[in-house]
Every structure is written in C-alpha cells, then in structure tokens.
Design a protein that fits this description.
Elements lengths: L1 H16 L3 H4 L4 E17 L6 E15 L7 E3 L2 E7 L5 E5 L5 E3 L4 E5 L2 E12 L5 E4 L14 E2 L2 H11 L11 E2 L3
Parallel strand pairs: 1-4, 5-11, 6-10
Antiparallel strand pairs: 1-2, 2-8, 3-4, 4-7, 5-9, 6-8, 7-8
C-alpha cells in the first residue's frame, strides 16, 4: 500500500488542495457508479506536518451521494481513478474532542491493482470544526480517541440524510447516535 500511495500522491494532492469543505456541501447528486466508500476508512499520515493523508477505502458499485456527477473509473498513469462518495450509515458516535480526522468526500482515489476491492484516497486533515462522526454500532472509551479515520461533521451527516429522504434511488436509514 505504501508504494501505491506514494505513486499517486502527485495526482491526488492537487485535487484535494483545490476544494474547500463548504464548497463540496453546496449540492448533492445521487447516481450509480463504481466509487470509493471511505465511511470507516483508516488513514495514515503521508509525512510529518502534512495536511493530507492517505485513506484505505472500499471500492463499491451502486447508488451513492456526492457533489459531482458519477462517472466510470478513469484510466490514469497511476491506475484506475474513482471518486470517494457517501452511502447512508445506520449508527454513529458524535465526537466532540479536538482529535484530527480525514475529509474524503468527493476526493479522487486510485484503485489498488493488487486488490480491486480497495482504493487509496488522498484526504484533507480536519481539526476543531465541530462535532464529527465515527461510524460505529457501539461506543467505548476509545471510539473518539484512537486512530485517524475518514469522517464528516455531524451537521453534514444530518444534512445529507435529509437530502436523501427525497431521493427515489437511495433512501437513508433512520440515524441512531450511540454513546457520547
């Protein structure tokens, strides 16, 4: 994974640096495609002090939500490129500490040629931006304090869930907050 991550850095960092979080939340689109699902992705820092991390995401095919139109995987010199999109979650913990997390929504990802069910996505590190989501079915003392994961702000989760209530193709689950 480290070699794949290093080879795609130049392609992905430019796309990550070009979008602010608030810009990506202005509109939502539901469509069907192959995409990266980073909802529970574990991430690793690229280099000390960097504001971008690589996250290990699942590759899925079906309906999802993003702020850009769906497209088929794109062949690039680094490999097949897909976009990280959202699929509804059922349960989450709302974390209110200042632990950093990774913003992967609508980010470009390179499918792992050795395992096409996985993709490496370059995501921005976020800190101190209000309560954030940890997708989990149960809460423990370490839920909001261990590791670096892909996440979203609680307000964005709720906004997306509201949007999906009017979708014909992809309905949200009733959200359940655990712990906290």
């Amino acid at each position: 994974m480290r070699l794949l991550a290093a080879s795609v850095l130049s392609v992905l960092v430019l796309a990550v640096a070009g979008c602010s979080d608030d810009e990506t939340m202005t509109r939502y689109l539901v469509c069907e495609s192959t995409y990266a699902l980073c909802t529970t992705a574990r991430c690793a820092p690229i280099e000390e002090g960097e504001e971008t991390v690589f996250c290990d995401c699942a590759v899925k095919t079906g309906f999802s939500v993003g702020s850009t139109p769906c497209h088929e995987p794109i062949d690039t010199p680094e490999g097949k490129q897909v976009v990280s999109r959202y699929f509804p979650v059922k349960t989450y913990a709302a974390c209110t500490n200042d632990r950093p997390w990774a913003w992967c929504f609508d980010r470009p990802c390179i499918v792992d040629p050795a395992d096409p069910t996985r993709a490496v996505c370059a995501c921005n590190i976020v800190r101190d931006d209000g309560p954030y989501v940890m997708v989990t079915e149960s809460y423990s003392d370490t839920t909001c304090t261990t590791g670096l994961y892909s996440s979203a702000r609680v307000r964005d989760l709720k906004r997306t869930t509201e949007f999906l209530k009017s979708s014909k193709e992809l309905k949200p689950f009733a959200l359940k907050q655990v712990g906290g």
